[in-house]
Design brief:
The structure is a homotrimer.
Chain A: H1 17-30, E1 35-37, H2 46-49, H3 56-61, H4 65-73, H5 95-104, H6 113-125, H7 137-149, H8 155-161, E2 164-168, H9 178-186, E3 192-193, H10 199-202, H11 209-220, H12 227-243, E4 248-253, H13 263-274, H14 280-301, E5 304-309, E6 311-312, H15 317-323, E7 331-332, H16 337-340, H17 342-348, E8 356-359, H18 364-374, E9 380-382, H19 392-406, H20 424-444, H21 450-468
Parallel strand pairs in A: 1-2, 2-3, 4-5, 5-8, 8-9
Antiparallel strand pairs in A: 6-7
Chain lengths: 472, 472, 472
């Protein structure tokens, strides 16, 4: 009993009977709708060969910094979780032993979204009916291995079984999108499209920037070593991405600073960067200017533009030096959207050809800055609760803090934003439950009518992402 | 059925039966109390001639930036809503057509305070019993027109029927308050008083500043082109406003920065401003200094001083250039009250002659700065949830984030702060319901006793605003 | 009836029946557990002579700035509450009269934690069964006086009756810990230990700094007038404190800025400070450097390190000048932990020998900065809701905003942090009720299982503080 893994059918709804009943009804309207996945980091290669996933550790632990950061915070060395040091020094290779370590510490995830997603995933995707703990670790490991070998759990079959209508990956301009091309040619009709994320071509502080530009020249067939060529190269790659089905661009920036530099000034900084001499402030100006350029191109080619701002990447220098980026050391920082976005919004914010979706992890900006901005500028929408706030309480706070000022129609529905493919249904399910719960409260308190809530719950789960990411 | 407009009698209360029952009881204690409206932007001219309101579009749409900003954010052009461009170029003149556009988009207001107020207003003030949507738009338009012609819906009759005990307008020092004088002389005994808001005389960056000062000289009979004359002129106007019934001043500032400049320094900046040469930092110093001066005058004449801080006005340059200010493009910004108010609070904060009410839209300052300041300085009180946060959830957050540190007795009750006269009862009703709900939760969770809650709910609805705005 | 003071057995639980029932059960698991008090400001002298407390005013009013700040904010002069001016000028000496003033204003505390604690204290510790108000003031005063004389209410007996397992005081390095030594020698076995708080030795801006350093030389037997001696002196005192049972250090700082200065630079600033010439920025650098040094020493001696950051001390200059520090004029300010703590965390944050507990009153940093940092760095933990947020709603917000990212296991349980000894049980009881309530909600909404909640509620109340403060 105590060790049974149960997914309660009413989980995450309010336990107030009146609200719960309404939430059940609203959830029933969306629970089986197809999943729209307009932004995420799933590796498209998975679907080219459609090879089975190797084992639970390889699938669920080693690539998931949400998971191993928590164990690390409690003193479990990165190496015990099989994370490979950059210098090739030793790391745990025994995946069963790693799984045991995770199981021993699984209590750390009580009350966290990672815990909720994993439970859902194990129960519904891998048919595990026991809780993960020290005692059950090996039994569950074996069971998952066994299940992963079944045809129904191969990537393409999962994709279909998950009822994914469309899945966007995230790709660099210099990427040739070969995986996407192969999938297209394979005859399989799962819809997987790329998204244009040019951070590496734009961040002139990155030590690999020059190499990236060389590669950009190569794939675009345009000499990108001049500012003019660089802009043309990016434009040409956008066109190619669009041809390949892309409908969006994405931009990860420290701050959402935007600025319109004159051509000469942009060129001057670009040329200095080509010579490897960049001042910090020049970099800030250049990146701010390129966001502006990207908005201009979006106005021209109609691609939805996303900005993910306000993260201090790789805060832990020791971990960065030893293991590289994306190791769970990215920390949100305070952001200012009002001043930083002003130049961009003043130039393009009234233009209906632009659809600009802003994401933040600084919740203090929800009601103060973002909902008021999205509730005014036609071009701006508000992305859902992101990263650490993509959680039961985090999503509720997002709705409470934004709806009254921006309404739900200046938001874009749920975005899973994950690299953990098998967690996708769990993430959408959690979001749909929370939206049902939020709307149920509004109905129970006579703020909206039941029939309005029925429309809204479908808008949030399905129609708004489709519309805002321009999926036909 | 689906199209009936119902105002549920228990709306906005918790649906938890125990809390709801207590809330019903508490609400019954305040629901019919007279309305105290100590700060707002209703045009006093309405009550001079007591002409009927023309039509729903003129009354409810064109002047309400809360409303048209939401439609604009979804791509409806300002001109389709009849907003007049400054250059006199075309705008929609057909009020029925504008009303139809609003009705077509009314679903955008689901879950927003504007939606709640409008529903209340239509149902209770204009006796509309159908929901506003594309189908019902014209029928409702006609019905409202018809109702507006009735004597009971003329401004003075509404004022009485709304049970308004006192209503303050907001006026510039150079205003002669003719409307107020006429109302006084008319024999009608609705109590409408002015408030002294000298922003235009103080903001030396404003391009009309010199003209304002000339006008100030004219109405005060004092030469205000010298710093000394300017201060005297303002003092004289305060005295006049006070004579006319004013009990408050109000100050809208970008940041609540205060500073005590020496007379020479203040004079130097003033003289430069007279010559039209102002540096940004000089302006900041001067405005900060004038807040100080206003506090000094309040200590002397006993007028309650309000500061509304932390708004980036007219953020959208295109809209500002084409339509002017107050067009829904004002965006809150992060504020710092602790350092900025220190000079003022250090000089006058211990003085019981000063009653300083601080408003913010930066909710992160509620528990961090404002409740601790108001919970210490005798002169400082905390204004209620303002603007975007004057909403069902926003008001609840305000109470939750301030009461534990400052108590309710360092707050000042509800302020409607509206220019939309017929929305006044809806706004007070929403606030009274939310306060009843908040207190009901405290009772249900045994934090306070029922009899304490009964006192508190009346304090919040009636006694605190009366006391803090010095209405006898 | 109306005047009975009742402590409802279900107070502070949700009134939703399902949640309440679970909360009752969870609370029953912790309600009688011993109290762990790892950080606070109780005067150890109390337990040396074990003299009875004099009277309610002396015990509950004069030393409690939480209490008198609220009355002061409503215009009650400090002198009416018996606060002694520094210059020796008059203050109210009649403790009955002071008590009457407090009783007359006790309604101000409705809904505040001070109100909740005092009610609990009066009811459970002093057996008062009537509410405090103007009418009952004198009767209650007499009754408390009477009860204070009883042996069971002498400090040591209270300590035992409160079931305190361990109580830490907060002490300066130059303190000889005589009281602690006397308690040890007395044969009484109440466990009272010191904590090392070197703010006065580190804050070179403090006008008494040089005197403090002289005293440090004296008690350490090391010449602390050189930088090297100063560091050695501090190390020696830490060793002494540790010998005396201390397991923690504590650091109260304006901002959590940290920096690693070279020895020469640190020495240069130290020498200037010895000559009384300190620049503001030098002071900031030095304090940031000393936090670094303290972390180094903690790595070496294993003492848990606490940082309490983000308070503008003595904001009200008039009160500071007239009455001194700790008079209710400390105001939280915005803090930035991400950049400020980076140097310290980069150097020591991966070291399991360090246990660094961070406290904030800037709630906007909970989900944005602190939970992400604590959810990654092995050395960092998150202290509970502090000061103004150590309250019914404040603690709930803390759990809601941190658990999903950091889990509960990167937090350290409840800390009472009080100088008001008889309020200790009330404070722990409130915290235990809120944690039970929070977990009950998670159970009722099927986020965690009942048996998980049972473990967690005990972890929060008992095991986590014991572990994190290294009590065996």
């Amino acid at each position: 009993m105590k060790d049974n893994l149960n997914l309660h059918q009413d989980r995450y709804f309010s336990s107030n009977p009146k609200e719960k009943k309404i939430a059940q009804h609203l959830y029933s309207k969306v629970k089986n709708l197809p999943l729209i996945c307009p932004h995420g980091h799933v590796n498209p290669e998975l679907f080219v060969e459609n090879m089975p996933f190797p084992d639970p550790t390889e699938l669920l632990v080693i690539p998931d910094h949400y998971l191993f950061r928590m164990l690390y915070s409690q003193g479990v060395p990165m190496e015990s979780m099989g994370i490979p040091p950059l210098d090739g020094s030793e790391t745990e290779k025994d995946h069963r032993r790693i799984w045991q370590v995770v199981a021993d510490h699984f209590y750390l995830f009580r009350g966290t979204p990672t815990g909720m997603w994993l439970k859902h995933e194990m129960h519904d995707v891998f048919e595990i009916k026991k809780k993960l703990n020290s005692d059950t670790a090996m039994e569950i490991y074996d069971r998952i291995c066994e299940n992963l070998r079944k045809q129904e759990n191969h990537p393409r079959e999962m994709f279909e079984r998950f009822n994914i209508e469309i899945l966007s990956t995230t790709d660099s301009p210099e990427d040739t999108l070969e995986a996407h091309q192969k999938i297209r040619k394979s005859g399989w009709n799962g819809k997987i499209i790329p998204a244009f994320r040019p951070d590496s071509s734009i961040d002139i502080l990155n030590r690999n920037w020059k190499k990236t530009i060389d590669k950009l020249s190569e794939v675009s067939g345009i000499d990108c070593s001049t500012y003019r060529g660089y802009i043309e190269g990016l434009e040409k790659r956008r066109a190619f991405f669009k041809e390949m089905g892309a409908t969006t661009t994405d931009h990860g920036v420290h701050s959402p600073y935007t600025v319109a530099l004159g051509k000469t000034e942009a060129e001057r900084i670009f040329n200095k960067a080509q010579k490897g001499k960049i001042l910090l402030d020049d970099a800030k100006q250049f990146i701010g200017h390129m966001l502006m350029e990207m908005a201009r191109m979006s106005v021209e080619d109609g691609m939805t533009m996303q900005i993910h701002a306000g993260v201090y990447r790789n805060h832990n220098k020791k971990i960065m030096d030893r293991f590289g980026p994306d190791m769970g050391c990215d920390i949100p920082i305070a952001t200012n959207f009002v001043n930083n976005l002003k130049p961009l919004l003043n130039r393009y914010g009234n233009d209906r050809n632009l659809n600009l979706i802003i994401f933040t992890i600084d919740e203090s900006t929800y009601s103060r800055e973002l909902a008021p901005l999205a509730g005014h500028y036609p071009a701006m929408k508000l992305g859902p609760a992101w990263w650490f706030n993509d959680s039961r309480e985090g999503m509720l706070r997002f709705r409470r803090l934004t709806t009254e000022t921006a309404g739900i129609y200046n938001t874009v529905g749920f975005i899973d934003d994950t690299r953990a493919f098998p967690s996708i249904p769990a993430r959408h399910d959690l979001a749909r439950r929370i939206d049902a719960r939020y709307l149920a409260e509004l109905v129970a308190e006579n703020v909206i009518d039941p029939n309005e809530a029925e429309e809204m719950v479908i808008d949030l789960a399905y129609r708004l992402p489709k519309k805002n990411y321009k999926f036909k």
